[in-house]
Hints:
5-stranded antiparallel β-sheet, 47% strand, CATH 2.40.50.140, mainly beta, two-stranded antiparallel ribbon, 0% helix, 98 residues
Amino acid sequence: MSVIAMKVTTAEDVEGSKNLRVYTFEAPDQEPVTVVANRTNVYEVGDVAAIAKVGSVLSAFDDLEITKRKVFGIESSGMAIGHVEEEPGTELGDDFSA
């Protein structure tokens, strides 16, 4: 697995948290990915972001392995790294950093 450019299809505040949002990201030939993220980078529907899917090992983040996690009871299945200009579905590589 690596980092893939994906488009935001839903973006909502997490109930009970001032600092978290839950997103759905989609790209051609990919299953939708739900990500719970802080407000360091805020995404709106239609934005394209770099998404590390479950199983990715990110060399740019000291070999961080992405796993599923529950945050505020919501399963998060990836990590949003930052906005990108690439088309959804573009492979960005495991050494990508925004």
